[in-house]
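--- STAGE predict ---
source: upstream dedup step, 1 unique chain passed
mode: sequence only
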Amino acid sequence: MEHNHSHAPKISNINRAFLVGIAINLLYVVIEFGAGFYYNSLSLISDAGHNLSDVAALALALLAFRLAKIKANEKFTYGYRKSTILVSLINSVVLFVAIGAILWESIQRINNPVEIQGVSISIVAAIGIVINAVSAFLFFKEKENDLNIKGAYLHLMADAAVSLGVVISGVLISWLHIYWLDMVTSLIIVAVIFYSTWNLFKDSLSLTLDGVPKGIDLQKVISEIKEVEGVIDVHHLHVWAISTSQNAMTAHIIIPSNTPIEQLPILKKNIKHELEHVNIQHATLEFETDNEICDNSEI
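--- STAGE serialize ---
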């Protein structure tokens, strides 16, 4: 049952990658917001809001890494890891407010179209492509070692694609002088933000209510446990998130009544090892023999 590989992510200089990513994206958000207001471009303002969500996502992931290092205490026995989920929920609510503001401005622009400088919009958005691509590259090597890092990488690459859409919109506005394309582009960006924000809201709300974390299949968890030699069955299984990157589980493990007591530590070690394969890092296990009567009313 033993394996010679480690499930812990080998993350080198990841703290620096997050800090650099946050800094250059935050600087670009300020530039893009300023350019959007100066050139009266809703698409730039919308894209700036989208890039601001990048900064929040990167900061949240960095927070998760930092909080994971804080030791638990008598009042917070899991430490402060759960706060990453709360911050994620707050982040999604703030983004919904931003979406509402952009939609309101778009409605106002329908009746009062504004002349836009397409070339300037394209130049600013092109800078965004470079910023997002460089930021994504910071996480490229480690993206398969941690879900938060992979999420940051994919988010940044998607935003580079959104910036490309703004560039194309700016070029078309410059050539064809169809100024309502700016509003249409902003609405498309809003739709993209809403889609990702809605998923973030659902996932963070579910985790706040101790729902089963996304990506964990309870049947697969049960199957992994039952495949361990010496395990007959498992019940009273509960899985929840203690942070945006770490999951916990409690379960009753049914074993043969003739199992030697000195075998339990090895059995527990083997079960916990298999649970790492299904992204469960903390497990509390209670052993029962097959001739015991368990109270099925237990939560």
